[in-house]
Specification:
With 279 residues, the chain is an alpha+beta fold. The chain is 30% helix and 39% strand. The protein folds into two domains: 93 residues, Nuclear Transport Factor 2, Chain: A (Roll); 132 residues, Nuclear Transport Factor 2, Chain: A, CATH 3.10.450.50. The strands form two sheets. The protein has a five-stranded mixed sheet. The two termini are 39 Å apart.
């Protein structure tokens, strides 16, 4: 360390500052790339839990008949041993009053403690611990469709990861158009048997680049696209990686997002994991 630091003494203070900033930047970039690569190899996101919580807030948005409300989730924490999860969110209520003509209402920042079932498939109770109102109005942002569709995407991904065929079926409308990336998977009933036949020790998908767009105004029909980084570990301990793109047409019916069409394709492999931009 002494040998490295001695040359800096002969530099001007400005030059020293520039070098220190450059070194710090290089370290930050290196650490960020390593963090992304580590995250890609096995996300800690609990898809089943996220699906349940997004569905709960989506139904909360739907339940208000006298006025419209929105709940935009900022963060979902890890459940503690008692099954309590901290959720941070922004909310709005569209009520008649000041600013309503321009579609602007005060927003709120909330922190809630949700108690969930042992299998993470049901919200049992909710407790508000922080609830503060903004001192200004902001444009109203609906969240019902976003929450219900995110619940669908997380739930679908969870069902793939845990080989739950009935879970996959529960998200499909009748006469769904289904196209899998694998030729052997002709219909959704073939998906889990195909995965089981691979005899993987571990099977996991990292979700990224989720985008939701309405198909036509005034209809609860949406185009949903995202990507999977699919990781699987063979019986020999080898890690297999595939990049997949998924496109769905989703209809919201009776407070649930359901799949009308589903198509997935393999993408070219990523050779530089650190260069992948995740959303």
């Amino acid at each position: 360390m002494e040998v490295l630091m001695q040359p800096l003494v002969r530099l001007s203070r400005k030059a020293q500052t520039i070098i220190i900033k450059l070194v710090a930047l290089v370290l930050m970039v290196g650490l960020s790339a390593a963090a992304v690569a580590a995250d890609l190899s096995g996300s800690n996101l609990n898809y089943g839990l996220h699906s349940t919580i997004y569905q709960w807030f989506g139904q909360l948005d739907t339940a208000n008949h006298t006025h419209e409300s929105s709940h935009h989730i900022l963060n979902i924490g890890q459940p503690n041993p008692e099954g309590v999860v901290e959720v941070k969110l922004e909310s709005q209520v569209a009520r008649p009053g000041q600013g309503a003509e321009q579609g602007r209402y005060p927003g709120r920042y909330e922190e809630r403690l949700l108690r969930v079932s042992k299998t993470f498939d049901k919200v049992l109770s909710s407790q508000s611990v922080v609830d503060t109102e903004d001192d200004f109005d902001s444009k109203y942002r609906p969240s019902r469709a976003i929450n219900l569709i995110k619940s669908l995407v997380y739930g679908w991904t969870h069902s793939l990861d845990v080989y739950d065929s009935s879970g996959l079926q529960s998200y499909l409308l009748a006469n769904v158009e289904f196209v899998a990336a694998e030729a052997q998977v002709k219909q959704v009933d073939d998906y889990v048997p195909y995965l089981l036949a691979q005899n993987y020790l571990k099977n996991h998908r990292d979700l990224s680049k989720l985008a939701i767009q309405p198909i036509e105004a005034g209809q609860d029909h949406y185009l949903v696209t995202f990507e999977y980084q699919w990781w699987a570990v063979s019986q020999q301990g080898n890690t297999e990686v595939a990049q997949m793109a998924v496109e769905m047409q989703v209809h919201i019916i009776s407070g649930r997002a359901m799949i009308k069409t589903y198509q997935e394709v393999y993408l070219a492999p990523i050779t530089d994991k650190g260069a992948e931009v995740r959303c």
